[in-house]
Amino acid sequence: MTGGRGTPGYAAPELWMPLPVTHKCDVYSFGMLLFEIIGRRRNMDVTLGGSQQWFPIWASDKSEKKQLYDLFITCEIEEKDQEVAERMLKVALCCVQQRAETRPVMSLVVKMLEGGLEVPEPPNPFTHLFSGVPEGGDSLTRPAWNVVGSYWSSSEVTKSTVVTSGTPLMKKYDITYASC
């Protein structure tokens, strides 16, 4: 690919980097769509002050600080809909993880939204945007999604300093390059 495609902020990070593009790109974009549904607005709104300008980061921060009531009030989410909104928010946070392998597959996203699967507490997907904060916070591991039949499990993916995926030519000759 010679250039990025898609809407910045909605397209998965791997579309803008020299990384393999997979079906997980759609999962990322769907997560961004879920944020718009929860927030009842576009994700970026420059007319709002400070931290609320980019809704996904603001919502993630509210979730991490256990301040969802503030989010529900701001987004005018009625009490009867708050449980569904919280589930949607957790699923959205799972979908927009920086690394593709830490995002669930779409079939699991659907099951989580329908209530057929418990939604795990997702790590903050935006820590990589803040200088001095390593991806994944203090931990060097991130959840990965595995499907066995109709069951799912979350395992850990260790952050590696070597990228082993790449072009077919790189795979053929077992060429790796260090990531930054």
TrEMBL record:
Any one GO CC term of the record: membrane
One Pfam match: PK_Tyr_Ser-Thr
Protein name from the UniProt record: Serine-threonine/tyrosine-protein kinase catalytic domain-containing protein
Gene3D superfamilies the record matches: Transferase(Phosphotransferase) domain 1
Keyword Transferase attributed: yes
Main location: membrane
Entry annotated with the keyword rRNA processing: no
Keywords, ordered alphabetically: Glycoprotein, Kinase, Membrane, Serine/threonine-protein kinase, Signal, Transferase, Transmembrane, Transmembrane helix
InterPro entries, sorted: Kinase-like_dom_sf, LRK10/LRL21-25-like, Prot_kinase_dom, Ser-Thr/Tyr_kinase_cat_dom
Domain Protein kinase: 1-127
Regions that span the bilayer: none
Compartments (UniProt record): Membrane
Topology term for the membrane: Single-pass type I membrane protein
GO molecular function, one term: protein serine/threonine kinase activity
